[in-house]
Amino acid sequence: MEVKERILLIAKELFFKYGIRSVTLDEMARELGISKKTIYQHFKDKNHIVHEVIMFFLQKDREYSEAIYKSAKDPIHEVIETTVCIRENVSNVHTSLFYDIQKYHPKAWNLYLEQRQFYYEIIRRNLKEGMEQGYYREDINPDILALLRLASIELGFGSDSFTKKNFDFMEIQAQTIDHFIRGVVTEKGKQLYTEYLNLK
Predict the structure, then answer these.
(1) φ, ψ at 185 (rounded to 5°)
(2) 3-class DSSP state of 110
(3) Binned average pLDDT, 10 residues per bin, the chain of 200 residues
(4) Residues in Cβ contact with 115 at an 8 Å cutoff, skipping those fewer than 6 apart
(5) What pTM did the predictor assign?
(6) Homologous superfamily of 55-199
(7) According to the model, what pLDDT value does residue 188 have?
(8) Rounded CA gap, 181 and 190, in Å?
(9) Rounded Cα–Cα distance for residues 114 and 58 (Å)
(10) Contact in structure between 136 and 79 (CB atoms under 8 Å)
């Protein structure tokens, strides 16, 4: 593995675990077993590292999302597999991560805002296909509910109401997706959703 890639992987681990502001380049260098000078050979500064880490993470997330869509048996299965993916990739994310990026790293935040439209379209597509297949109610508005679902995911990342002192991140996500799914499914969809839950 190249040094630059190692730096990005360790930086992602540290940022996700402790938040961005609390991680210094000295700590990164110590964790990597290299000098700070070596880090500067690959990156201008910490802001540059943050930008590259977020770009790398978002690209991987896009790839995971597209792979899940292709392999999912139906829209409800896609939602469940996406929840598993979230658990595997961001279950230990520090609650300040979103806030740190938004406030202190605007270029990296713009990357997320661009990706946000992609997430919205995935959720909206899932809702429309679920409606067409009879798993979701015909009277829902996929445009509104896609935004609502996206907002509920983001709420778990950066809200003062949901701190790690009070709630586990994955418990927040599990509760919000369960609430969301039960609100949109038909009886046919509810039966399928229950079947998937019983397989877990």
Answers:
(1) -75, 150
(2) helix
(3) 90 91 94 94 95 92 94 97 82 76 92 93 98 98 96 72 64 88 97 90
(4) 58, 61, 62
(5) 0.85
(6) Tetracycline Repressor, domain 2 (1.10.357.10)
(7) 98
(8) 8
(9) 10
(10) no
What is the residue whose two structure tokens read 């790398």? 56
* DSSP string for residues in 22-89: T--HHHHHHHHTS-HHHHHHH-SSHHHHHHHHHHHHHHHHHHHHHHHHHH-SSHHHHHHHHHHHHHHH
Amino acid residing at 13 = E
DSSP secondary structure string for all residues of 146-162? HHHHHHHHHHHHH-TTS
Cα separation of 13 and 174, whole Å? 23
Position 32, amino acid: L
Q: Nearest 5°: phi and psi at 23?
A: -100, 125
102: Cβ contacts below 8 Å, ≥ 6 apart? 109, 158
Structure tokens at 104: 């202190």
